[in-house]
Design a protein that fits this description.
Elements lengths: L1 H48 L8 H9 L7 H6 L7 H4 L2 E6 L5 E5 L8 H14 L3 E4 L2 E8 L2 E8 L1 H76 L3 H28 L7 E4 H9 L2 H8 L2 E6 L4 E4 L1 H17 L6 E9 L2 E9 L23 H7 L5 H11 L3 E7 L2 E11 L7
Parallel strand pairs: 7-9
Antiparallel strand pairs: 1-2, 1-5, 3-4, 4-5, 6-8, 8-12, 9-10, 10-12, 11-12
Helix pairs in contact: 1-6, 6-7, 7-12, 8-10, 10-12
Length: 431
């Protein structure tokens, strides 16, 4: 149990760190991609507004003003924010001018060396066919703007910018994976300290249950012996019969507590063998046919032959007995009980169904509570049947220690307990 708790702690802690790192890395890369795309859009808009040319900077503007040329507007100057004077030489782009009939009448590839005029023409025609105003074609982002002569299409080579985004993504993922691996190792190392207080508490609880159970067995044995002597000497009466009945119930309770304690202490290396689960279920269910006839219950069995199982046969026999006994206890008058066994992939599946008169009392609660220790849906009926609410807890512990599962589900007016256990090939089952 402690190792299972430790594994859960490691898994939850690592998963939490993973999601935090995912958010951080994703946020950084999305921000980088947004910033890069925004800069690309700004360059495209700038080139489009200036007919495929970069506007002059302040030093150039002074020369142009001296030559009688007009200055650029303040709005254009603001759009140059973030761009250096080398941007016009570093930016690779080409453009196409199109008339109103969507015919290309001018191509300018003087600012790019990675593309020929024919290649530029093909890309421009693809853009015209798509009818879109902006987007990506391969490593080029384009912008289509309306002009007095028709349309101007600017293509910007984004390979370096996209490659930079990819490098940041790769570096951040590598750092994130390395960091997650280091954190996983640290969590694994320090998880023992984290679960140590819980482990000590559970160990103390186990020791208390075991010690108390052993200590109670001796006085109970003495009480039972004394009552028996009183019956021989003074004659049996309702008081001695009640004492005998209660001592027997207490002995059963102590045995159940010891069983649970032993199951909790068992490691993953439980006694394991291959046996025929079909034979076990058939053997244990057969005596209940007489019980069903006596109580007027309907009892069906559908046990597939040759279903083998790998696990602790003694413990699994106890599990099957608990489920069958529980089904017959709570089936109600003129009720229905069924037991079915079949194979599903690599699992042997056992289903025990019984009708339940008090099924409505569980409507507001999850059925998983039935496996809680000392839980009883109807305490008055449990007292009548002599139960303490430990049988299903024992069944669940047996299933889990044998690498299986058990669950309770509603089915019509009753409950079905579905148990899955590791399947073993029938050829390996005993004859």
């Amino acid at each position: 149990m402690i190792k299972k708790l430790q594994r859960k702690f490691i898994f939850i802690a690592t998963l939490s760190v993973f999601f935090v790192m995912l958010v951080i890395i994703g946020g950084i890369n999305l921000a980088n991609l947004y910033s890069t795309n925004k800069q690309i859009d700004m360059l495209l808009t700038l080139l489009s507004e200036n007919e495929g040319k970069f506007p002059a900077y302040e030093t150039d503007k002074k020369d142009k003003q001296q030559n009688g040329e007009s200055l650029y507007s303040d709005e254009t100057i603001l759009r140059l924010a973030g761009l250096s004077e080398e941007s016009r030489f570093m930016t690779r782009y080409f453009l196409a001018r199109v008339d109103f009939t969507d015919k290309i009448f001018q191509l300018d590839t003087g600012h790019i060396a990675a593309l020929t005029s024919s290649g530029a023409q093909k890309l421009a025609l693809k853009v015209l066919e798509s009818g879109r105003k902006t987007g990506y074609i391969d490593v080029y982002k384009y912008l289509v703007t309306e002009k007095p002569y028709g349309k101007l299409i600017i293509f910007l080579d984004c390979r370096e910018r996209l490659a930079a985004v990819g490098r940041v993504l790769g570096a951040s993922l590598a750092i994130g994976i390395s960091g997650l691996a280091v954190i996983f190792v640290l969590i694994s190392v320090f998880s023992r300290r984290a679960v140590k207080p819980v482990a000590e508490s559970i160990e103390k609880q186990r020791r208390f249950i075991t010690d108390a159970s052993h200590e109670l067995k001796t006085p109970l044995a003495i009480i039972a012996a004394n009552v028996e002597v009183l019956g021989y000497t003074g004659g049996k009466n309702e008081w001695t019969a009640s004492i005998q009945n209660q001592t027997k119930r207490m002995s059963v309770l102590i045995d159940d507590l010891l069983t649970l304690s032993r199951l909790d202490e068992q490691s993953s290396a439980v006694p394991s063998s291959v046996f025929s689960l079909s034979e076990v279920v058939g053997e244990l269910a057969e005596p209940y046919k007489a019980v069903a006839i006596t109580r007027g219950l309907k009892f069906d069995m559908a046990i597939a032959p040759g279903v083998g199982c790998r696990g602790d046969e003694t413990a699994i026999r106890r599990l099957v007995s608990v489920l069958l006994d529980n089904a017959f206890k709570y089936a109600g008058d003129q009720g229905h009980v069924s037991a079915s066994l079949f194979r599903r992939g690599r699992w042997a599946v056992l289903e025990i169904y019984n009708t339940a008169d008090d099924i409505d009392k569980l409507a507001g609660e999850p059925l998983d509570r039935l496996f809680d220790r000392f839980y009883r849906a109807d305490s008055s009926r449990a007292r009548e049947t002599g139960g303490y609410g430990l049988g299903l807890s024992i069944a669940k512990s047996i299933a889990e220690t044998n690498r299986g599962t058990i669950a309770a589900k509603r089915r019509g007016d009753g409950i079905v307990f579905v148990t899955t256990l590791p399947y073993a090939p029938p050829a390996q089952s005993r004859s």
